[in-house]
Amino acid sequence: MSLRHFVAIDLGASSGRVMLARHDSQSGAITLNEVSRCVNQLVTVDDHQCWDLDALEQFMTAALEKIDRQGIVPESIGIDSWAVDYVLLDAQGNRVGLPVAYRDGRTQGVMAQACRELGHERIYQRTGIQFLPFNTLYQLRALCRDAAPELAQVAHALMIPDYLHYRLTGELNWEYTNATTTQMLNITSGEWDAELLRWSGANPSWFGKPSQPGKRVGVWTSPSGKAIPVVAVATHDTASAVLATPLVGHNAAYLSSGTWSLMGFESRQPFTSQAAQDANITNEGGAEGRFRVLKNIMGLWLLQRVCSELAITDLCQLIADAEQQPACQWLINPNEERFINPASMVREIQDACAGQRMPVPSTPAELARCIFDSLAFCYRQVLQELEQLRGARFSQLHIVGGGSQNPFLNQLCADACGIPVFAGPVEASTLGNIGSQLITAGAVADVTAFRQQLGQHFPLTRFDSHGSDVFRRNLPRFVSLTSSAKELCI
Asked: Of residues 80, 85, 237, 373, which has the active-site annotation?
């Protein structure tokens, strides 16, 4: 047996993990061992919602040093994270300003201003990216609008994974998959769009040439003196998750389920038609020149906030209790802007139900059932939009990520969408991170070969549609919610 070791640093908007992967080059089997895990949460600094990047960096380096103490020498290290957020550096590489998070309220109204001044269609045709009020384009405009004094010191702007690459290696990089989420990358050229950069107020010199996944950025020198290569994998965590989704054929859709739910399909060509623009579909970059044609859905953020507010720790029991509640008694539109970061998610859900003159959920089980049913309806709606866009129906849906561990929600999704659902793998973003490193190292030929290996060694759980009448009966109610509410888009 020939074992090769790789390290994946996988940072989500609510948690982070460092995983040590052992790859058997003969069988193709991958074994994941968790080195360390942390909670990632927003902190308030000077009235802004920010990330504690120092804590994340300390977590990351402590885990790498732990691996070093064990005498293990990985072939490479890869980092992936959430999208759209950035870090500013001065010419000496010191951080400038606050690491403000996308849920901060500073971008309020900026997206609407962009559409008035540049044109909704012009922005979409140049980028192919979904309109979301926290896209990097609008964050930078808000920053430059406020004319913070530290702007004069800025020399570089890096996305979160590239900032952490820099902290490990001292080398600058701008990885493509995360760069596409900024809504500042030209979809035709794959380069930064000069017109959009000018409008943002950011200096074009802050940004270097985007690089494709698989670039060796530099090396991290371990305490024992080992020089470990750091590889820029598909650094957007969803790009890594999709890379590790065992899609079969051209009629398979995916749903990366976690804090956010991202539903879409792979394509060699972007979809930027008027229909795609009207549906607010995004064309984010993927590995090997593949586009991730998808739509963002608020996801399990709603449940995470409810559990936090009500101090719920037994998620399995909550799911079991929710399953016993009546179906579709309480419905909301998960993508309403009001749910981005309310003072109280419980109260916001209750107010949304009351505003629609429907029963108000009061118990944890009722709130959870409201979220699950509403997400299932949202999944159905987005799947139909994607089918209309590509002109063909999907035959199956693959759910990956932490949300794939929720069998009740998986079954609701199958019933609402009317097609088989395959759940797993859970650690998809970590596995995709490892997959990029394996391809870079020449241990696996390409994405297709990697997915075939995953399918052999990570069994999936199938959920067949029961054709539930309750979804068909209540569909008009949900449609009315989405047609009347202010969503996370124009």
From this structure: 237
